[in-house]
Amino acid sequence: MKEISVGRVEEGQRLDRFLGKCLPNASGGFVHKMLRKKNIKLNGKRAVGSETIQSGDRIQIFFSDETFEKFSSRPSHSNPGEGNKEKPHRRELTGEQIRLRSKVKILFKDDDIVILHKPAGMLSQKSVPKDDSLNDYLLDLCRDMGWLSEESMEHFRPSVANRLDRNTSGIVLCGISTKGLQFLSRILKERDLSKYYLALVAGTVPKSCLIKGYLTKDEKKNKALFSETPREGSVPIETEYHVLAAGDKVTLLKIRLITGKSHQIRAHLAAEGYPILGDPKYGDREINRRMKKKLDISYQLLHAYEIDFDKHYDGLVINDPMPDVFRRVLDFCDVDFS
Questions:
Q1: What is the three-state SS of 169-225?
Q2: What is the DSSP pairing of strand 169-175 with strand 302-308?
Q3: Are 225 and 218 in contact, with CB atoms under 8 Å apart?
Q4: How far apart are the first and last CA of the chain?
Q5: Under 8 Å CB-to-CB from 252, ≥6 apart: which residues?
Q6: pLDDT band with cut points at 50, 70 and 90 for residue 72
Q7: b/e map of 280-306 (b: 16 or more CB within 10 Å)?
Q8: Cα 225 to Cα 60, 145, 200, distances in angstroms
Q9: What is the rounded distance in angstroms from the CA atom of residue 241 to the CA atom of residue 266?
Q10: CA–CA dist 297, 278 (Å, integer)
Q11: What DSSP string runs through 112-143?
């Protein structure tokens, strides 16, 4: 018989999903069959799998050592966590990946969530195995800082809860416990928090405004198409922006993301005639060429600047300061922003 203790990090998961992580080589059907036959119990009692596990719960698995080893990727120890376990292999990072990691900052942390600054150029999550991402950085950070043990990370994987485009900088929310990740996923889905961005756009924006429209995603081109009226497959969007500083050539906007669709800010502002500087997909090619030549800017100047948890976390507000590159452009274009 094997007994697994549920820690604080793992609590909040369904029992059957937790068992799927403990027994990764077993099918879901097999796990539920073992529950029905009482070969797996929760706190010494029969369980069906839909129970929500809590810290301190104990799961008894009545398998032979051979059967347990067959379905478990972990070494067999009567008390999980005992024995010497090798640290997971870490692949070598490129110089650019190391440089980007050095720019990541912790903006907030408690037992359940971490809020990080993602630099422009870093992926939120990898798309191919050779990629490095903020999510990979998060996993290494949890190990290096001792926030999570290797044992607990077999049953729960910390993860980013929201994503920014590779070349958008700023705030990313991360869950480092089941409770934290479920909380962040819920409030993001329900739009139960306020998200603000800073953007430097081409042209003089005359006034603050709330703009509405529809986006249709072209999956092949990975590009959002804007329209003022609904089309097949389109979704409604709302973007609110406030003018912080304006000159003859550029305007600094603070943007409230009311809906949160992929590429929404970039496509919406471009459709309004105010493309974000440096944006290779939705921006003005000639303006971008000049910005590249004079200021070496080759990515969109869009920054996830502020998160307001509103009624959650006692109204916690997190700010990620405006990147220096924004200030360089404002100074170059002789726009006063103090």
A1: EEEEEEECCHHHHHHHHHHHHCCCCEEEEEEEEECCCCCCEEEEEEEEEECCCCEEE
A2: parallel
A3: yes
A4: 67
A5: 198, 199, 200, 243, 244, 245, 246, 326, 330, 335, 337
A6: confident
A7: ebbbbeebbeebeeebebebbbbbbbb
A8: 53, 43, 21
A9: 12
A10: 6
A11: SEEEEEEPTT-BSS-SSTT--BHHHHHHHHHH
Dihedral angle of Cα 10, 15, 20, 21, to the nearest 10 degrees: 10
**Average pLDDT, rounded, for the chain:** 91
pLDDT digits (tens, 9 = 90+) for 239-294: 999 999 999 999 999 999 899 888 999 999 999 999 999 999 999 999 999 999 99
Segment 134-158, tens digit of pLDDT: 999 999 999 999 998 888 888 899 9
64, 1 Cβ separation under 8 angstroms: no
Task: Give every CB contact of residue 136 below 8 A, 6+ residues apart in sequence.
Answer: 126
**Residue 45, token pair as written in the block:** 């009692």
Look up residue 266 and give its two tokens: 């970039």
Residue 34: closest CA among 13, 15, 53, 14:
15
Structural domains for the chain? 2-71 (3.10.290.10), 95-189 (3.30.2350.10), 194-332 (3.30.2350.10)
Amino acid residing at 142: C
Say what the pTM is: 0.83
Is residue 276 within 8 A of residue 301, CB to CB? The reply is: yes
CA distance 191 to 257: 10
